[in-house]
Here is the input.
Amino acid sequence: MAGVSSRVTGPFARGGAISVGMEKGDETPIPNGMVWNMIYDETATGTMPQIDHDELWKRVTFFLNELLPVAEEAGVQLAAHPDDPPLPYIRKTPRLVFQPDLYQKLLDVNDSPSNKLEFCLGSIAEMTEGDVYHSTEQYSKQNKISYIHFRNVVGKVPKYKEVFVDEGDIDMVKILRILKNNNFKGVLIPDHTPQMSCAAPWHSGMAFAMGYMKAVLNQVENE
Ligand SMILES: [Mn+2]
Here is the structure.
């Protein structure tokens, strides 16, 4: 559980708006007594034992096979976010979905209708392989996208920057057209945003993203 790692903050978005990015991976091992950047045991010593990708996939397979029947019965969807940042290892721990095709591997573990994706456009665009439009087509066509993190970035790991939704590498309108074409009925949310220079830096960034989303949705719905 490497948590959020390897991030840098700076004036990376339009107008020098403060945002986050990545310059290089973090190779320091995770200390025992820590999970998701939180220390739960201050007396712990040493670092977490290392496992490989095979062991990670064995564990997630067990987890999904146990939980999915219960989720299905309860009408709940389990939606997997890709790794952020999408690198094979962070802090000496293996990562699960750091290339677009690994999403297919995750879906193929169990064909339950509750086994779905939290499709983060930013993280997918940061991946070194594949293509965000192809992935959107591939996974929306299978009706496996539960909801979408509708955000934009410039660059790929290990060097990228998060930017405003309308200034990154991804053509967001093209994404919406693919979703419309595949009859996507899930949810879009803004996810991260650069911060604006005002009393509510994050919230105004989110408001901008929401307004942009409403506008492009209207445009594509009326095409
Ligand atoms: Mn996300």
